[in-house]
Write the structure tokens for this entry.
Amino acid sequence: MENQVMVIGQKESFIIRVLMKKMEEAGMKSCFVSASVSAIDAMWNEGSVPVYYMDSHEAIARDVLQFLKDRVLQEHKRMVFIGEKADTAEVMKMIPSDLILEIFERPLNNEAFISAMMGHFLERDLGGFKKSILVVDDDATYLNLVRDWLKDSYRVSVVNSGLQAIKWLGNNKVDLILLDHEMPVTSGPQVLEMLRSDAETASIPVMFLTGKSDKESVMQVVNLKPEGYMLKNIAKDELLQKLDTFFRKRRMAF
């Protein structure tokens, strides 16, 4: 994936042109877009990082901030802001912190900006910005299938028992657990009860992904209040859509 930056500003000033030249010298592609919703929408590139350069002589375009917020939230991206303290303080009132990659104060230190952007692209290439999912199932074939389905969109780890899941979580962080219901030794509901009883794991979201569809099994799990209950006959596209919706709603809640 190419290292691309979309610089947004009221006008393409000399300072912005110098910054874009510095990015070019560092091997990054960049383009300038005026700070209007229509212009940004027309030039939007899913692979680019939006960088909003705020001119202290101009009022903050709130419609532009709202558009950027909605767009990066939808695409699981983050953005950069450059401005004076008063301007960036206003931005932080409107934009959730997890949607902000970095904020730079003016006058901008170009070297620090370039270094931060290169670090961002390196982390992106290593998968650092992908949500992490742990899949727990004793069926190795199904584990491999789900991992193949999810690996392009998420960082996926798999374990084949409930006890292995507990052990894995002792050393690793995860954003969501996809948990089978019926497993030998320790069942899915037992695993969820163990997770909820430990302060270190109590807040980890859990969705069941299982072949158990009988009313008794479903009600047993519902009483434990997981974030979802899906059957293994779910199609790839539907599973990805449900996960995308879950993470999007979770981000909007914070």
